[in-house]
Amino acid sequence: MKILFSITYYHPYVSGLTIAASRWAETLIREGKRVSVIAMHHDRRLPRNARIGGVSVYRVPWIVAFHKGFISLAWVFSSWRLTGSHDVTVIHLPQFEGMVTALAAKLQGKRIVAVYHCEVVLPDGFVNSIVQSLLEISHMVTLLVADTVVTYTRDYSESSRILRLYRRLTKRKVVAITPPIPVPTIHKQVIAGIQKKIGKADVVIGVAARLASEKGIEYVLEALPIIQQQLKGKTVKIVVAGPMEPVGEAAYKEKIMALVKKNKKSVVFLGSIMPQQMGSFYRCIDVLVLPSLNSTEAFGMVQVEAMLSGVPVVASALPGVRVPITLTGMGVLVPPARSRAIATAVQSVVSKKEMFIALRQKAVRVFAASRASRAWSKLFMDIR
User: Fold this and answer.
1) The CATH number of 188-366 is which of 3.30.450.40, 3.40.50.800, 3.40.50.2000, 3.40.50.2300?
2) DSSP, res 183
3) What are the pLDDT digits (tens) for 36-81?
């Protein structure tokens, strides 16, 4: 079976969406499937065509870039050609141009799977409201022509406005499959390098996220003085692992850097860390905070990785995001955008750290990568 993934960004761009997509692709390759990817040529320094982890990647040139999206005539022709030469097309949403690929596959009688990773919530403004509406129309068209729709959790499926509308229009179910999340490995040299950058600290608060406005990193920074006051006598540091220059987030980066000036010695930015090195990052922290603000975060694979590494989590009580802590008990949920709530939760986790760590084996059972891989593979067995 030949399977085509349609996605705006792909490796080496790092995000939860690209990591999940690559893990799903590699699962299919291990099953003996042939997997290709059509993606935007987001970084023109990259080769147009490449082979990554057994996946054939075709990067399509674009004419105009807007925020995190692109306009490309070449996408239309490439979509027609590639969907025609594959048996199944998997559209990874959010992706405006995914509608074109889905329609190309439909017109050629190909099977379509739509994976609804998350929603896009753009800032207020007239232009953004138009873009938001166009994006949602595109996503709904893709969902309606798809044979199967997948999202990470039933909780997110039931809470998503778009997915609720899809179910109401089609009377179909949405399949819930979490991405395969392997137990992170550690590398002593990487740990040593991270610890050197962190320096001396009694409590290390980790954040694994891009500098993107929906990630809510500012609320962790605002919580820092409160945490320091609660943990008197202890040196507390926030360590952020993630891309420092994500697409379309220059203004947000300025905002974050302005906040960092107030606590310069207590905040460390590590920049991008390769997925296979994230286990070493988790080994260097006492608690992971996932402070996301809205439905652009649908699950938060990093919190499961942290749990599998024996690190408790403080996470926003958002649909989908709340599932790992709800299922395992290995952390504390907080309302989004509440700095004081984050501070109180971090203090609670740090003071009862051993109790939370004892729940690691439960997290291993609940989020066994083999179970997720089997569910994903079965989906394609049923398509035959």
Assistant:
1) 3.40.50.2000
2) P
3) 999 999 999 999 999 999 999 999 999 988 777 888 999 999 999 9
